[in-house]
Design a protein that fits this description.
2 copies of one chain form a homodimer. With 497 residues, chain A is an alpha/beta fold. Chain A has 16 helices and 15 strands. In chain A, the strands form 5 sheets. The first copy, chain A, has a 4-stranded parallel beta sheet, with helices on both faces. In chain A, helix 12 packs parallel to helix 14. Chain A is globular. At the A-B interface, helix 3, helix 4, helix 15 and helix 16 of A face helix 3, helix 4, helix 15 and helix 16 of B.
Chain lengths: 497, 497
């Protein structure tokens, strides 16, 4: 946290999906901020679609912390109850995968949760403060169901409990977040098989009675069964952040039905809304198409990082992905393509190079550029609903200044060099969460440079016809496992086994 | 899994703590093996004491898998209910830490669970198949309490439920694992404050009513409260491995009361014992003393890896720690000291160097050494209750053979070279889980070697008085960020910022 910025008197505006406009962010109990974000259902490898919400809300977490807030960031793991379709029917996604892979459902959870965490580390997202699992909060979910029933908005049929959307909508407003109108929803909903228990096709399950072959089930006052998918987020956000908390985030695709149902559940149980600000990130398309397994354009993060997918021209560093995502505003759509990622790769490199250049600048007695004005613009961009594309344009203005100073066309004082260093450290690393190349990559880079020097020296010796020297260099390299090959294009080298 | 060894017809003997002797290992439902190991209570950084059980049971997991068994390895995370003393009184360890750090208990859990996982990765222990958390299995624990009460071995007092050890001991044998005798236990136990509810000082809590200020509590038929510490392992092992399963592991310090109580709980609830083989690793002492925070000899794994502890003369690579632990049999005590770790470091390096040498051996038409006999002895060592010190002595016999062949004193055929390679790969990497230096460390090594070559070339140029060449080398290095310093002891180099 920066000293000169820890007063939280920034005019941070965020777009609240509930009121559909940018509003000042005023936490309920400053300096504390409660932030809940919908995490993954861990039944398959993390993919490009997981990267965007993770990075968006990591950016928010980092910026709020930078401003001096004490943020409790809760992101759940859905490990039970997420059925294949939103109509409360079909297999549980995890149980289905468990059958396919011949594993216990919790083995599936363990496997894909580990992959998710590894990928999130690679993308340099900070771990949430608490990462509750749905299966670990069955009692809390049952208690919430009891409250909803007590308030008259839940009904039991054959051991399952449903939420009475029609009744809720008479007092409250079902559809207020997503803009859907209940009457239209009802008119458009086909009655699916297995829906007969519901009073209304729009009702959703709070508790489902399990069939005998269902593996993940628990005793309850209604049946051996499992909670509905929407319930976990209401129960766990209230448990860890209180009945009313500041921000709930997630992907735009979760607005309906997931978040709409969350609002209904919490409001029905508590008589008030839990969430003060709803924030939603937009989606990523791939070459203009929606990402879907059926379209063959489904790219996992491991594939992105390794380049092993037919749509990928090369591997992409996790920091390239991060930079790419931050180049767009989180509420804009963004299209993935090799060109776009290669441009992001170059942009990130240019930014990192400028950060290194700061340390090499020679101070002058006067500054010809205005660092304070630049800094002000950077904060204004972030305060404007986390506008990272504008932030980046200001930082690249800074990059041009840094390069101009390095070239001698502009001047900066010692104090302004320090100011620049802090500015770039704060925004590039602290807030945007970008990272320098790892020490391994730096090492590989250094090895290449040293090899260029050695090959150059050997070339010099050859030109001077000092054959003993050039042979000696070759032999010494052989001893440390490096083989030289003289080709038409020059000398190349490789490290042996 | 190795083809020529996948028949599981090995005569694997393991020491079953319950019968106090080595017995043949015969799983209940081959090829499946159920393995449950007590994991950490996540309220502080992982330390040396966590490394030994983690590596011991990782070794078992790897060897069983190598033999062709399909192992479901469950290791729990204790995130609630572990009180400060074994007499069911005192603060919950996690809640106490939460107060100290001004965090929500689950924030404490998240923080130290992440550290534990990172450290386990560094030690190259494979993740368990399932990693259940106590707080995520409250219903399962409550169901088990109901069964114990139904069978007459649990009683409720003021909202808490206790296990009736005296009654249990009339039908079964309380103390059979630890060798304790109930009458002596009762005679020796002081009646502690807050123990008044118990019929007998040896009784232990299954459910504790929570005080109003207690944070981690759940509704139950008896009170708002939390489960006793011993209960989670009984409930979660039965849930994920079945009522009767093969192996239960843990540190020797857990034999009493933890594992004794587990046996009592499962036996009381099910009328039969759950665990077929109990395995216990011995403890690590530090310079002859028990490790304890109060003695100032408490070393965390992060401190070991970084060298930042007053007792440490240097940082130790995680693979040095792993090798050190495998040098002793898991049931032997072992004493930690800088000398012992430095010896382990050398031993591990020698072993790794020999593995690399295998690839450089020149095949002969005849073998003068008997690889098959060596292989047989390696399996025999592992089959003898995972006797890694004996295994290592055989592998070092192999190391001598490899070096003798490299020196031309012994010969091996092409087929035997392949046999040797498989043997070392299987035992060193697959079963013992040691790792070669990381590519980063290899890169650093290569950089040093290349710098030696460049410095040598510059020295040659100086000796030939080719000052232009030696200056050019210095300049070229400067450009890639490497600075040379000529000192009395010769030229040293460093990488700049």
């Amino acid at each position: 946290m920066r000293d000169n910025c820890s007063d939280m008197n920034h005019n941070l505006q965020i777009y609240n999906s509930l009121v559909r406009e940018k509003v000042p962010f005023e936490p309920l109990n400053p300096p504390f901020v409660g932030l809940y974000v919908c995490g993954p259902t861990v039944y398959s490898d993390a993919h490009l679609g997981h990267a965007r919400p993770a990075i968006t809300f990591d950016l928010l977490f980092r910026y709020l912390t930078h401003l001096g807030y004490k943020v409790r960031y809760v992101r759940n793991i859905t490990d039970v109850g997420h059925l294949e379709n939103d109509a409360d029917e079909g297999d549980d996604k995890i149980q289905k995968k468990a059958k396919l892979e011949n594993l216990e459902p919790m083995e599936v959870v363990q496997k894909y949760m580990a992959t998710f965490h590894r990928n999130m580390d690679q993308l340099n997202t900070l771990p949430p403060s608490i990462e509750p699992r749905a299966s670990g909060h069955i009692i809390e979910q049952q208690e919430l169901i009891k409250k909803i029933i007590d308030q008259g908005y839940g009904y039991e049929v054959n051991g399952s409990v449903y939420f009475d959307v029609n009744k809720y909508n008479k007092k409250y407003d079902y559809g207020k977040l997503s803009g859907r109108v209940l009457e239209e929803l009802i008119a458009c909903t086909r009655t699916l098989e297995g829906q007969e228990e519901k009073k209304n096709s729009c009702d959703f399950a709070l508790w489902k009675k399990a069939s005998p072959e269902h593996l993940m089930k628990w005793p309850s006052p209604w049946s051996e069964g499992f909670p509905g998918w929407h319930l976990e987020c209401s129960a766990m956000s209230i448990k860890y952040l209180g009945e009313v908390f500041d921000i709930h985030g997630g992907g735009m695709d979760l607005k309906f039905p997931h978040h709409e149902c969350e609002i209904a559940q919490s409001t029905a149980a508590l008589g008030k809304e839990s969430v003060r600000y709803w924030m939603h990130n937009n989606m990523i398309t791939i070459n203009g198409q929606k990402m879907a397994r059926s379209l063959g354009n489904f790219i996992t993060l491991d594939q992105l990082f390794s380049g092993e997918h037919e749509l990928l021209e090369q591997p992409y560093n996790p920091m390239t992905i991060r930079f790419f995502i931050l180049q767009a505003h989180y509420r804009s759509t963004m299209d993935f393509s090799n060109e776009a990622l290669q441009a992001a790769e170059k942009g990130a490199q240019k930014l990192m190079k400028a950060v290194e250049t700061i340390d090499k600048l020679k101070p002058s007695s006067k500054s010809s550029i205005d660092i304070k004005a630049l800094k002000k613009k950077c904060y204004e961009a972030m305060d404007d609903d986390l506008n990272t594309p504008v932030l980046l344009s200001h930082l690249f203005e800074g990059v041009r200044c840094i390069n101009s100073v390095a070239d001698g066309c502009e001047t900066v004082t010692e104090a302004d060099i320090n100011e620049l260093r802090t500015l770039f450290n704060d925004f590039v690393f602290g807030i945007m969460g970008l990272q320098k190349e790892s020490s391994q990559e730096i090492g590989e880079e250094l090895t290449s440079r040293l090899m260029e020097i050695i090959i150059g020296l050997r070339q010099d010796a050859k030109e001077r016809k000092e054959w003993a020297v050039s042979d000696k260099i070759r032999d010494k390299l052989e001893k440390v496992g490096v083989t030289l090959k003289d080709t038409k294009e020059g000398t190349v080298w490789e490290v042996g086994l």
